[in-house]
């Protein structure tokens, strides 16, 4: 009888431990979702606020600045929506369309220009080649470009160059800064962020997930200074292929 009771106690303890582990993992995933949403809210809201302040100082809000502010606020709304999603649903494509990457990149740079000025960074944009359109979610793509630019401003500084071009069957975006460079490979930083162990890589993890969802990729490339992140995306299919 005593042996049966002891065995029953061990089984009960094991089940309680398993339940506690499942609860902890669920809580950990929820905490990471909240941390991610806070990260995605803070950046766009700060960029929009600084854009409005700059417009008020110069006495004018240009059409380009207004488009950029609207894009940042749309991303903030998306971050709130993501709080209701599961980890597997985050970065899912929602409203797919043909996105003009050149125009989107210009809006992203304009949106982050006031933040760069506050951080004493110089933000430069250069596009080469013809237009490039990507079939995908405009706001998710803006998340990716915005996170790369924000990461370069915050952790790199100096001259932040944003280069874009149509590259064969895709679009290529490079963000180069004057900072100390990445402390680890992109994949390692993304893994740390996913496990809740590295705020530094959270923006890169989001950008990498968005790139993958669009059939592209995010990687680091050799550079003589700072960090150089490369986002590659496939072009939109021809209209008769949709």
Give a nutshell description of this structure.
The chain contains 6 helices and 7 strands, in the order ααβαββαββααββ.
Protein architecture, described:
The protein is of the alpha+beta class and 242 residues long. The protein has a single domain, classed as Heat Shock Protein 90 (2-Layer Sandwich). It contains six helices and seven strands; from the N terminus they run H-H-E-H-E-E-H-E-E-H-H-E-E. The strands form two sheets. A five-stranded mixed sheet has the order 2-4-5-7-6. Helix 1 packs across helix 3, helix 3 packs parallel to helix 4 and helix 4 runs antiparallel to helix 6. The radius of gyration is 21 Å and the shape is globular. The protein starts with a helix and ends in an 8-residue tail after the last strand.
């Amino acid at each position: 009888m005593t042996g049966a009771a002891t065995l029953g106690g061990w089984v009960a303890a094991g089940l309680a431990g398993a339940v506690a582990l499942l609860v902890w993992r669920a809580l950990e995933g929820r905490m990471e979702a909240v941390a991610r949403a806070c990260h995605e809210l803070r950046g766009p809201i700060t960029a929009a606020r600084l854009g409005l302040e700059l417009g008020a100082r110069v006495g004018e809000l240009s059409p380009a600045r207004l488009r950029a502010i609207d894009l940042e606020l749309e991303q903030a709304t998306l971050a709130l929506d993501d709080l209701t999603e599961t980890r597997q649903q985050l970065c899912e494509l929602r409203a797919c369309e043909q996105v003009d990457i050149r125009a989107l990149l210009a809006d992203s740079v304009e949106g982050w220009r006031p933040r760069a000025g506050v951080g004493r960074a110089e933000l430069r944009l250069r596009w080469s080649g013809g237009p490039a359109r990507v079939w995908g979610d405009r706001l998710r793509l803006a998340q990716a470009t915005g996170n790369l630019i924000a990461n370069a401003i915050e952790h790199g500084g100096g001259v932040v160059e944003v280069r874009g071009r149509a590259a064969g069957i895709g679009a290529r975006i490079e963000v180069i800064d004057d900072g100390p460079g990445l402390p680890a490979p992109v994949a390692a930083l993304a893994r740390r962020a996913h496990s809740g162990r590295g705020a530094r890589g959270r923006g890169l993890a989001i950008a990498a997930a968005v790139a993958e969802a669009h059939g592209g990729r995010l990687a680091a490339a050799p550079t003589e200074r700072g960090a150089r992140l490369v986002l590659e995306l496939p072009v939109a299919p021809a209209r008769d292929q949709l």
